[in-house]
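Re-run with default settings, no changes from the original entry. Doing this only to confirm the output is reproducible before filing.
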Amino acid sequence: MDALSNGKPIVLDGGMGQELRRRSSKPASPLWSSQVMLDEPELVVAVHRDFIEAGAQVLTVNTYAATPERLARDGATEWFDTLHTTALDAAHQARNHSGCPDVKIAGCLPPLVASYHSDVAPGHSACLDSYRRIVEAQARRVDLFLAETLSLTREAVAAAEAAQLTGLPVWVALTVSDGDGAQLRSGEPLIEAAAKAVDAGADAVLVNCSAPEAISASMHELAKLGVPFGGYGNGFQSIEALVPGGTVDCLTQREDLSPQAYARYAADWVDAGASIVGGCCEIGPEHIKELSQCFRSRINGQ
């Protein structure tokens, strides 16, 4: 999937997990948004639909927490097939009923054990085995793969290697230090990790689930690679309180990231050369709507 010929960037959806937390009647779970696939799958369809109506051109399948490792720790390994099938069904149902058949569905390759904590990631061989299993579960029903919120090079390379075997486009999104957009949360240089992901098969490289300010700094690093790049930030005040196996209700939302404020950050990313933008945790349909309208206005010269 390429940026549109008129120069308008591709707009991704926003953060599914936090949006579901706002809508769900259930308490927060270590399985994050995947628990909703078991309890309230209709909410997932509704959130997908709202992002499409807001202008998202890409929906990411709601399987962020449905990895073999997380299910073994927080749920049951036998849920794997059900969660992936139900999530794919929800994305397709939303697209089919939206009247927007051109919306793409992205398979999700998340961190296997925990977000932001590179120290708990499995070794390369174990990563590759798990990502291959996820890819196999999704490949026949997605248009591309998005490996996201990866905090160290090893996971990014394994995810890209597993996904590129399908022949589908592969986008790899890395998460960087909120205080330094040039470093992954593991401390590794962003530019080196991104280059290795490209060598492993990534067609585009992004930075996600980081402070928008850090993403602004990272755009200049990604521009050096010569491949499509982009970003989608989160709206957390800090991610420090979240531990492996914890629940996201320990994190606090920023109060200064209105849809208009977030769109200004995204516009800066596009000015730096980004061709793929969207939102992550705490960035909802109203933010994506503002992004879409902002870029439409810029193309129309308004």
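The domain at 10-300 is CATH 3.20.20.330 (TIM Barrel). Strands lie at 10-11, 58-60, 104-109, 144-150, 170-174, 176-177, 180-184, 204-208, 229-233, 276-279.
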